[in-house]
């Protein structure tokens, strides 16, 4: 990088990417009439040996300071030798200048070079063109397949299997050190990220209890972040606790206020079940694994959390770093009511004694819903504690856009053995780090962009480790992390489903905060069952999540499943760092935006045909559609050898998810700001829900508030389209 100073170029001499010494040349025109720039690399040691300020001072010395100008030299042997040496030196320097100028023109790249720092071991070609030679993709796939093996996964499973590694425990720390050691053995750069978080544990002395008609139960399982205390209320069965289930109860004129809600596990997260009940003023929620959904044993305890969000709920929107003075604040997603898990046997004892109406046919139609006399007392004595957790990182740097990276991450902690939950994912992470580092070191593979490997802690409490890292480095990650690939629970069923199925990310998925909080394109994947008679693996959140259980579910093919998962994740990551342009299809959002806009338009025409026009929103949707098509066309017509052009296009692609985060809501109050995939009143789904509330004359509905939310959501889409268009003169200003 040239530093322009007056009439001279000072060319930094670089060692490991840092300026160490400078060479100064006068700007004189060469024979071809252009101002040539010449770089001669001199170390600081050489400068010290000649006793001056470098070659520049010798070529541009002041004649008054030279003893050979003060008087006419005689033709002594000494003077003759000196003149000959001087002449030879000038000739050599002139020859080198001419050679370097000519060589520079011959080797000049066809695009602007990226301003990157390179290590000493980077081949010379990278210094000249700043472009990694593109290895054929078929060869990349073959190299990865050669590195991954079933035997390697067998040994890695043995190393990382643990019966006790809850977040922040000695077992968790031991696994963290193993991951760190592995990364260092592979020769990749490592670092750690430390946080002090608050988590809720089962009472160390004492217990939680449920008392129904004189029978006391003391479940060992618990739900972290529940409210604490004791509540008594009448039992009300609410199926899975979904919003539709509560609407059915309300349709039967059944009062939910003050009731203790009994629901089955499944369909939605524990946190969503509790949130839905709390909205209707229930006093507590009991959650059990129904044998029809979870054939795991009638006395199996289940564990989880009920924070409707991710990260440390006592530092919402900002990281839990040590010694930081936090205000007395907590997440709006913390429940205000009690929540407790019970076993299937405990639930059966309660349900067989319930009165009231019979269950709806679609709910089973056998058990009663419960009436006002079926009183139960729930007591939760969970203890809030502080734990230190560590996230572990390794990075393999790219050779072109090293400051752009894809992240591969896996949860390390678990309630118990957590073999499917954490051991398999951690093993896949470590094996991918080993395999790709071997491809780079020994097979000649060069990454255009970097790959970051992340081992998270406190995943069982709501992706706490990952979210705290995102909160701590959100500004640094912006426009640099272009994808997140989640490796949690990737292999846990009987047979691979050969037909792929796309599903929306759920809030309890570790990839969700990357997308909805940080605006980073994210993906989770898993193998699913081909047959409803062969259910998916059901031991997550229990102490039965062991290697034996997973082997039983996979017919002892767990290493093969893990290897297939590693190949799948590896192909995604390697393709993203291999190709010139990111393979992220922005036009996929066209159909999502159009369908949601169409639904809003339909409801507005029914409810507010004269008071509100949807044309503004429709126009913004059209702007996004045109901008995404234009970018796709730019990508097709781009010169892949033009590094700067590729970087500009990739930056436009990366900006889309980030610009779909609503800038009009606070990350502290509404952390999941993504208007399509997030949660809160700023989302397009919330606009449709608000319109439905207006139709039903819900007292919480507000037409003026809806108009405000409508306008902000519209401009978020238009702003995203503007950013996608690129330069300011390319913006669509039809609105």
Automatic annotation (TrEMBL):
Chain ranges of the Peptidase M28 domain: 391-492
Leader peptide range in chain numbering: none
PA domain span: 232-299
GO BP annotation list: intracellular iron ion homeostasis; receptor internalization; transferrin transport
Domain of life: Eukaryota
Domain (Transferrin receptor-like dimerisation) ranges: 615-724
Gene Ontology molecular function terms on file: transferrin receptor activity
Keywords noted in UniProt: Cell membrane, Disulfide bond, Endocytosis, Glycoprotein, Lipoprotein, Membrane, Palmitate, Phosphoprotein, Receptor, Signal-anchor, Transmembrane, Transmembrane helix
Membrane-related topology note: Single-pass type II membrane protein
UniProt main location, coarse: membrane
Pfam families tied to this protein: PA, Peptidase_M28, TFR_dimer
UniProt GO cellular component terms: external side of plasma membrane; melanosome
Keyword Transferase set for record: no
Transmembrane segments: 80-101
Post-translational modification (record): Stearoylated.
Family annotation (InterPro entries): PA_dom_sf (IPR046450), PA_domain (IPR003137), Peptidase_M28 (IPR007484), Peptidase_M28B (IPR039373), TFR-like_dimer_dom (IPR007365), TFR-like_dimer_dom_sf (IPR036757), TfR1/2_PA (IPR037324)
Subcellular location field: Cell membrane; Melanosome
Family membership: Belongs to the peptidase M28 family. M28B subfamily.
Functional note: Cellular uptake of iron occurs via receptor-mediated endocytosis of ligand-occupied transferrin receptor into specialized endosomes. Endosomal acidification leads to iron release. The apotransferrin-receptor complex is then recycled to the cell surface with a return to neutral pH and the concomitant loss of affinity of apotransferrin for its receptor. Transferrin receptor is necessary for development of erythrocytes and the nervous system. Acts as a lipid sensor that regulates mitochondrial fusion by regulating activation of the JNK pathway.
Subunit comment: Homodimer; disulfide-linked.
Name of protein: Transferrin receptor protein 1
Source species: Myripristis murdjan
Chain's gene name: tfrc
């Amino acid at each position: 990088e040239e530093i322009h100073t007056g009439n001279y170029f000072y060319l930094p001499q670089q060692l490991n990417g840092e300026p160490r010494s400078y060479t100064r040349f006068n700007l004189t025109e060469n024979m071809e009439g252009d101002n040539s720039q010449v770089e001669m690399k001199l170390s600081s040691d050489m400068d010290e040996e000649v006793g001056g300020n470098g070659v520049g001072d010798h070529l541009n010395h002041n004649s008054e300071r030279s003893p050979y100008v003060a008087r006419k030299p005689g033709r002594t042997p000494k003077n003759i030798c000196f003149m000959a040496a001087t002449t030879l030196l000038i000739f050599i320097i002139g020859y080198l200048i001419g050679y370097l100028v000519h060589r520079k023109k011959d080797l000049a790249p066809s695009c602007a070079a990226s301003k990157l720092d390179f290590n000493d071991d980077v081949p010379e070609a990278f210094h000249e063109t700043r472009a990694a030679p593109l290895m054929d993709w078929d060869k990349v796939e073959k190299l990865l397949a050669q590195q991954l093996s079933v035997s390697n996964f067998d040994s890695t499973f043995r190393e990382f299997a643990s019966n006790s590694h809850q977040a922040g425990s000695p077992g968790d720390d031991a696994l963290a050190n193993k991951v760190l050691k592995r990364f260092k053995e592979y020769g990749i750069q490592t670092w750690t990220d430390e946080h002090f978080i608050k988590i809720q544990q089962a009472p160390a002395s004492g217990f939680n209890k449920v008392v129904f008609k004189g029978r006391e139960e003391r479940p060992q399982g618990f739900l972290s972040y529940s409210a604490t205390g004791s509540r008594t209320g009448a039992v009300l069965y609410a199926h899975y606790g979904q919003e539709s289930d509560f609407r059915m109860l309300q349709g039967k004129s059944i009062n939910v206020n003050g009731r203790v809600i009994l629901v089955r596990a499944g369909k939605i997260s524990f946190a969503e079940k509790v949130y839905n009940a709390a909205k209707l003023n229930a006093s507590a929620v009991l959650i059990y694994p129904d044998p029809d959904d979870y054939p795991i044993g009638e006395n199996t305890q289940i564990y989880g959390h009920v924070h409707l969000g991710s990260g440390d709920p006592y530092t919402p929107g900002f990281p839990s770093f040590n010694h930081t003075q936090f205000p007395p604040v907590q997440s709006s997603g913390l429940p205000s009511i009690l929540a407790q898990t019970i076993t299937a046997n405990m639930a059966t004892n309660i349900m067989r004694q319930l009165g009231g109406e019979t269950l709806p046919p679609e709910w089973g139609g056998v058990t009663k819903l419960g009436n006002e006399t079926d009183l139960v007392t729930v007591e939760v004595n969970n203890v809030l504690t502080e734990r230190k957790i560590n996230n572990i990182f390794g990075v393999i740097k790219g050779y072109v856009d090293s400051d752009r990276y894809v992240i591969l991450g896996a949860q390390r902690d678990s309630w118990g053995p957590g073999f499917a939950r954490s051991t398999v994912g951690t093993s896949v992470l470590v094996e991918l780090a080993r395999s790709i580092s071997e491809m780079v070191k020994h097979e000649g593979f060069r990454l255009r962009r970097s790959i970051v490997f992340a081992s998270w802690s406190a995943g069982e409490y709501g992706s706490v480790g990952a979210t705290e890292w995102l909160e701590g480095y959100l500004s640094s990650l912006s426009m640099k992390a272009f994808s997140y690939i989640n490796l949690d629970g990737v292999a846990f069923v009987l047979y691979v489903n050969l037909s792929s199925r796309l599903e929306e990310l759920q809030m309890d998925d570790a990839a969700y905060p990357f997308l909805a909080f940080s605006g980073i394109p994210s993906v989770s994947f898993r193998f699913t069952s081909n047959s409803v008679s062969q259910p998916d693996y059901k031991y997550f959140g229990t102490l039965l999540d062991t290697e034996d259980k997973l082997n039983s579910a996979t017919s002892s093919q767990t290493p093969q499943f893990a290897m297939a998962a590693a190949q799948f994740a590896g192909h995604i990551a390697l393709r993203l760092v291999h190709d010139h342009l990111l393979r992220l299809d922005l036009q996929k959002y066209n159909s999502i935006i159009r369908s949601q806009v169409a639904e809003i338009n339909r409801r507005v025409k029914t409810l507010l045909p004269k008071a509100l026009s949807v044309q503004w929103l429709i126009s913004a949707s059209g702007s996004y559609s045109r901008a995404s098509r234009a970018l796709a066309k730019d990508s097709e017509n781009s010169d892949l050898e033009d590094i700067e052009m590729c970087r500009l296009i990739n930056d436009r692609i990366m900006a889309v998810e980030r610009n779909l985060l609503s800038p009009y809501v606070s990350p502290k109050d509404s952390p999941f700001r993504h208007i399509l995939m997030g949660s809160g009143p700023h989302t397009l789904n919330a606009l449709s829900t608000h319109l439905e509330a207006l139709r039903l004359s819900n007292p919480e509905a507000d037409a003026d508030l809806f108009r405000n939310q409508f306008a902000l959501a519209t401009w978020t889409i238009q702003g995203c389209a503007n950013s996608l268009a690129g330069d300011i003169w390319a913006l669509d200003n039809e609105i």
